[in-house]
Each structure stands twice: as structure tokens, then as C-alpha cells.
Amino acid sequence: MHYIECFGCGDVDGGLHMTSTVGEEHLVRSRFEVTRAHQGAPGLAHGGLLACAFDEALGSAAGNLLRRPAVTGKLETDFLRPVPVGSTLYIVTKLDGVAGRKIYVSANGRLDAEDGPLAVRARALFVEVTFEHFTSHGSADALEKFSQTAGRSREDWDINP
Ligand SMILES: CCCCCCCCCCCCCC(=O)SCCNC(=O)CCNC(=O)[C@H](O)C(C)(C)COP(=O)(O)OP(=O)(O)OC[C@H]1O[C@@H](n2cnc3c(N)ncnc32)[C@H](O)[C@@H]1OP(=O)(O)O
User: Fold this and answer.
1) Is 55 in the active site?
2) Side-chain half-sphere CA neighbours of 83 within 13 A
3) Rg over CA atoms, the chain
4) Residues framing ligand 1 (Cβ under 6 A)
5) Nearest protein Cα to ligand 1, atom 43
6) What is the pLDDT of residues 86-103, one digit of tens each?
7) Class of domain 19-154
8) For 58-70, what is each residue's pLDDT tens digit?
């Protein structure tokens, strides 16, 4: 599910511009190209933005694999290596389990190649929500834009393929 104004996957100035695809063995592969806009220490990615990139990758996996709206309840990150500006993080996310509304996902991010050195590891708990979560806490304008740019209606989420 893609939303053009999403900081993670949308077309936002200084955003992460991430792409995610569902691949073999129900793994979701995401890429994050680290630019100067994502800097913390000179020449290195900001840890908070790396956490954001993993939130996006993990959330994309939960949404695309289960086709249910869910939000991040908890996110843990292990920063194992510095991530330089100019590098690309190859993130692979897997669904670890579902318990009622709770969706457990985890991801590994490798530097510059699918088999590059492991730089960041993350785990998250997403909690399935109803559409009322977005209608009551978000804005009607943003939801309208979402349904136009995503090209889907809320009914699409009722189907679990
Ligand atoms: C039209 C719309 C389309 C939408 C498209 C989708 C786009 C997605 C975009 C994604 C963008 C990227 C992603 C983003 O940026 S998502 C944005 C960041 N996240 C949020 O804003 C979420 C804010 N939090 C909430 O809204 C509520 O707290 C939620 C909904 C999460 C739960 O409140 P709710 O009252 O509903 O449920 P509950 O409290 O009964 O909890 C239910 C169960 O979950 C367990 N639990 C909860 N929290 C935690 C925790 N921290 N650690 C451990 N466990 C936790 C809890 O114990 C319980 O377990 P159990 O007792 O059943 O065993």
C-alpha cells in the first residue's frame, strides 16, 4: 500500500523514498538509499531515520503480507555498523507471527548488497486497527488523498488473499 505523502514511501522532499516488494518465501525486500538529507553525524545516517526506514519496511511487510491496516505498537532497533551517506540499505523483512490483532515482524538491513555486512536489525509489533483509527485520529482530506493516490478503496483491505 503506497501513500504519496508518506515520509517513508511517498514523494516527500527529504523523505526516505523507499520501495518494497514481496518476494520469494513471503519475504519483503525494501531499499533505502541514504542521502545527505538523512545525515546525523557528518557523513553518516541518523539513527532515528534508520529506525524510520525500518518502521516503513516492517510496516510495509505487515500490510502487504496480511492486507490488514495496522500501526506500529513497538519498534526495537540494533545499530550494528555505521551507515554512510551514499550507501544503500538492503532490508529483508519476515513475518514472525500473528496473535489476534498483534503482528510480529523482524528485519535485517545489509549494506550495499543483498549479502553485504549486517548494519541494522529490527523487530516490531504492529497492532491491527480498524479504519476508524484513521478516520477518528487522522484527517478527512488526507484520507481522501490516500484513497485517490493508492487507487484502492477501503474494501480492498477486507480481502485477505
Ligand atoms: C484508510 C486507511 C488506510 C491505512 C493504511 C495503513 C497504513 C499504515 C502505515 C504504516 C506507516 C508506518 C507505521 C507507522 O508509523 S504507524 C504510526 C505510529 N504508531 C502509532 O501511532 C500507534 C499509536 N498507538 C495506538 O494507536 C494504540 O496504542 C494501538 C492501536 C497500538 C493499540 O491500542 P488499542 O487500544 O487498539 O489496543 P490494545 O491496547 O488493547 O492492544 C492490543 C494488543 O496489543 C498489545 N500492545 C499494544 N501496544 C503494545 C506495545 N507497545 N508493546 C507490547 N504490546 C502492545 C496489547 O498488550 C494488546 O495485547 P493483548 O492484550 O491482546 O494480548
Assistant:
1) yes
2) 34
3) 16
4) 1, 55-56, 59, 63, 69, 71-74, 100-102, 125, 127, 129, 131, 134, 143, 146, 154
5) 102
6) 999 999 999 999 999 999
7) alpha beta
8) 999 999 999 999 9
